[in-house]
Amino acid sequence: MLKINILLLFFFVPFSICQKEVDNFTYNPPIADAGQSQNVQLPNNFATLTGSGTSQNGAIVAYLWSLVSGPNIPAIESPGSPTTQISNLIEGAYVFQLMVIDEIGLTGVDKDTVTVIPSLIQTLTLQPGNSTENELNFAVTGPNDVSAHDIDLDAGAWTSSGLTFNIRGAFKFDLSAIPAGATIISAKLSLYSNPTPINGDLTNANSGSNNAMYISRITSDWNGLTSSWQTQPTLSSTDRISIAHTNLSVLDLVDVDVTGMVATMHSTNNYGFMISLQNEVAYNIRQFYSSNHSEITKRPKLVVVYQ
């Protein structure tokens, strides 16, 4: 019995030693390199990811780029290539992962961060709707205040029931999104003639033989819900813009340069704009869409470029 046990031990010992050597052999996974972190500044909204991989087990046979996190889902043009472009980036931080696979199927991963920072030059487009607190037609008929929120924003002089009727349109845009200390590069104001007016001759947006008007910067506080003709705000005459008379029934004022006025509003106090006739003589009027009009694309618009 003893001889049999010794014989069995003799046969199994060499086998056990060989198996252990195989089990102890370790394959190291490949090493992925997703490249250096990088910054992108808008308006550029794309970047290039350049990765690589090495392995002690042989060649790298596959690559795979994927998004780990970010403010949106950008386009990865060649996710299966070591180098790929990414596009449709927006402001924020993105983390991308590169996976590499070697010829025996082992994988390695690395991550890269792409940070998209705001453009030095920003554009703010404002076209509010139903801005009753920041918009008002200051109007008077004879001794009576008839200031109102209408679908028109007017500068005019007419008559009503035999009494003189004067109207001046005031409106203000919210500039609070522009950081303190920013430089105003440009500001363009657009007012669109209303072809179906509710004042004047009820047919023409522009009427009269002398409807030249001013766009003025308002220099004191007012409120569209509480102000009246008698309490209307003061105006600056030094930076006002003169708009020439027109014989056209409809004439839009597009991209009027109000850079100086907006720069002053931003650096001091923003009380908005007022439109008024240069000579308030009866039967002259200019009528524009207001923020209360249902035609949202024709409401007063201000585009400010700043840095």
Which runs of at least 5 residues are low in confidence (pLDDT < 50)?
A: 1-22
Number of self-contained structural domains:
2
Order of helices and strands: HEEEEEEEEEEEEEEEEEEEHEEE
Q: Give a short account of the largest sheet.
A: 9 strands, antiparallel
Q: How does this structure look, described?
A:
By secondary structure, this protein is mostly beta strands. It has two domains: 31-119, Immunoglobulins (Immunoglobulin-like, Sandwich); 124-306, no CATH class. Helices cover 10% and strands 41% of the residues. The chain is built from two helices and 22 strands. Strands 11, 12, 13, 14, 16, 17, 18, 20 and 21 form a nine-stranded antiparallel β-sheet that branches. A hairpin with a 2-residue loop joins β11 (135-141) and β12 (144-145). The protein starts with a helix and ends with a strand.
Provide a compact summary of the structure:
By secondary structure, the chain is mainly beta. It contains two helices and 22 strands.
Which features does this protein show?
mainly beta, 22 strands, 307 residues, four-stranded mixed beta sheet, Immunoglobulin-like, nine-stranded antiparallel beta sheet, 10% helix
Reconstruct the topology from this structure.
Layout: H1 2-23, E1 31-33, E2 38-41, E3 47-50, E4 52-54, E5 60-69, E6 75-76, E7 83-87, E8 92-102, E9 107-117, E10 122-126, E11 135-141, E12 144-145, E13 152-160, E14 163-171, E15 184-191, E16 206-207, E17 213-217, E18 241-243, E19 253-257, H2 259-267, E20 273-277, E21 284-289, E22 301-306
Parallel strand pairs: 2-9
Antiparallel strand pairs: 1-4, 3-7, 5-8, 6-7, 8-9, 10-22, 11-12, 11-14, 13-14, 13-21, 14-20, 15-19, 15-22, 16-21, 17-18, 17-20
